[in-house]
Amino acid sequence: MSTDALIEQLLAAPPEVGRSVVEALHQLLDDSMLDADDDAPRSVAEAAALVGLTAHTLRYYEQQGLVRPARSPSGHRLYRAADLRRLVFLTRMRLSGMTMHDLTRYVRLVEQGEHTVDERRRIMLEQRERILRRMRELSLALEVTEYKIELYGGSSGA
Amino acid sequence: MSTDALIEQLLAAPPEVGRSVVEALHQLLDDSMLDADDDAPRSVAEAAALVGLTAHTLRYYEQQGLVRPARSPSGHRLYRAADLRRLVFLTRMRLSGMTMHDLTRYVRLVEQGEHTVDERRRIMLEQRERILRRMRELSLALEVTEYKIELYGGSSGA
DNA sequence: CTAGAAGTTCGAGCGCGCTCGAAGGCAAGC
DNA sequence: GCTTGCCTTCGAGCGCGCTCGAACTTCTAG
């Protein structure tokens, strides 16, 4: 995904939710930093901070086969730009509700090479359906929620 | 929420996702049936079928204080229209990511009467933020997903 | 050289929201 | 009246995705 697209996402965010603009900016920042390809490898804690996960979780993801950072001679993990980009991808997909199971399956396919693109596309098509479905569920709930808010005197606290 | 609003939701759903229109219609149907106020009380299994949960889950919700159906002389649960409407509300909010904890807190407030509307509004305002935030996360993931689909030859399977 | 921070592996534990099964009671059709 | 099936309560179990702690090693600042 391009940084431009991310910026558009940012701008598309409704203005009344100030707090999360900061957060979105943070995400944007992540991507920029990753794109900057300043190829000093990061430690597990640094990588975790950049993508907004814990070091524990990064090790867990590795154990699950989602990412495979290089190692220093002494065995410490070295996260490079490509690893960080993958982590951002993983985080986005996890946040959208893709299960660990599907994600590991997908990553395995990616690592098996080009002949797996058919199945990869199938996975992503299914994932798109799930996302759209979740969005419709959220719309429904948003409506209920706003109805209740109105009922209780509106956002203003009147 | 009005049935009209639900119909609008339905129509607003993108046309390419045929399968879930059926599902949305099902939800709509639920509401109509509940609104029909055909006041024959339903058994736990009937109620479960109507709202799309299991009988086990309905009993669990009751145990958590989310709903309190009347009982027959012999102790069987009797779900009336009002109970079913509450169940639909609960289901929507659960699907939108509201936790059991927040939902029980909210329901407790409702049952405590009018003097709790301030806190109820606060809960719903927070919930709205969470929903909007989730929607933005989903948009981000949707974009990644569609990018991958395009990369793999598009929806058509080309 | 040394203290302390941060890294490693491993396996156990946890919070959430159900989900299930056992043991027994009630209801409706034949 | 009996059979069949749904109802009741209760407590245990489960799947997911982390999350944590122990025990040990390595790096870094002073």
Automatic annotation (TrEMBL), chains A, B:
One of its GO terms (molecular function) is DNA-binding transcription factor activity. SUPFAM superfamilies: Putative DNA-binding domain (SSF46955). SMART domains: HTH_MERR (SM00422). InterPro entries: DNA-bd_dom_put_sf (IPR009061), MerR-type_HTH_dom (IPR000551), MerR_fam (IPR047057). Residues 43-109 form the HTH merR-type domain. Keywords: DNA-binding. Pfam families: MerR_1 (PF13411). Transmembrane segments: none annotated. Gene3D superfamilies: 1.10.1660.10. This is MerR family transcriptional regulator. It comes from Quadrisphaera granulorum.
